[in-house]
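for the recovery benchmark. tokens below, seq after
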């Protein structure tokens, strides 16, 4: 009993020391510079969607600035050697949630609304499957697709400029559609065709955005199929293990 009594304080002291060592480490990851930029993105998006119907211009500026900060936090992570799994997840969740909210708003403005809801489902499903398959395959990043058989998929994640063009095109297209909508019963095809036939800087920007957006949707389909294959192969290998 005395031996137990003597060992207990020592064990308790070790636990306290271990917890004290873990707390600063955990806090330091939360306070990484790229993660702080990520928190700012969340705040900007909250403000943007709070004023989206009362001030379309302010919404567009805040939303697009938040989107651009996605590149800033990535640069900070590499510059200050502060790459973290939490930061990568925060980044993806912020991207997916902000785009999802905008697509839901567009589904309430344009008809048929199923177009935007389908895009929302594809976006979330493809990225979620890609992230999950990354962990199953033991990779450190969901952007590691060097072993993919699709050249377009490899090009997308292997070339920052190409990926940036596709991602920016999607967000710019959605912002333009939000800005040019005059009421809540717009026909999507009529608005797009009318805007493209005006031969203005806006129509040129819209055309470039539609092209990049189209590539991004093709990549989303490829990504979803590739990630699903990884999950299926994981199940097959698990079944054949003794």
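predicted aa per position
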């Amino acid at each position: 009993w005395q031996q137990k009594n003597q060992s207990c304080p020592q064990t308790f002291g070790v636990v306290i020391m271990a917890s004290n060592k873990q707390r600063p480490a955990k806090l330091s990851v939360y306070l990484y510079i790229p993660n702080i930029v990520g928190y700012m993105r969340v705040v900007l998006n909250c403000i943007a969607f709070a004023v989206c119907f009362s001030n379309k211009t302010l919404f567009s500026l805040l939303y697009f600035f938040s989107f651009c900060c996605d590149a800033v936090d990535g640069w900070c992570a590499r510059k200050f050697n502060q790459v973290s799994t939490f930061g990568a997840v925060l980044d993806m969740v912020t991207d997916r949630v902000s785009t999802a909210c905008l697509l839901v708003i567009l589904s309430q403005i344009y008809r048929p609304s199923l177009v935007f809801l389908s895009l929302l489902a594809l976006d979330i499903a493809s990225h979620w499957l890609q992230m999950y398959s990354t962990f199953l395959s033991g990779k450190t990043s969901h952007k590691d697709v060097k072993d993919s058989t699709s050249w377009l998929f490899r090009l997308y994640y292997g070339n920052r400029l190409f990926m940036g063009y596709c991602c920016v095109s999607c967000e710019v297209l959605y912002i333009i559609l939000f800005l040019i909508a005059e009421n809540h019963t717009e026909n999507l095809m009529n608005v797009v065709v009318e805007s493209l036939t005006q031969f203005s800087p806006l129509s040129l920007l819209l055309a470039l955005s539609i092209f990049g957006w189209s590539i991004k949707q093709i990549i989303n389909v490829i990504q979803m199929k590739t990630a699903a294959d990884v999950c299926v192969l994981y199940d097959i290998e698990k079944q054949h293990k003794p």
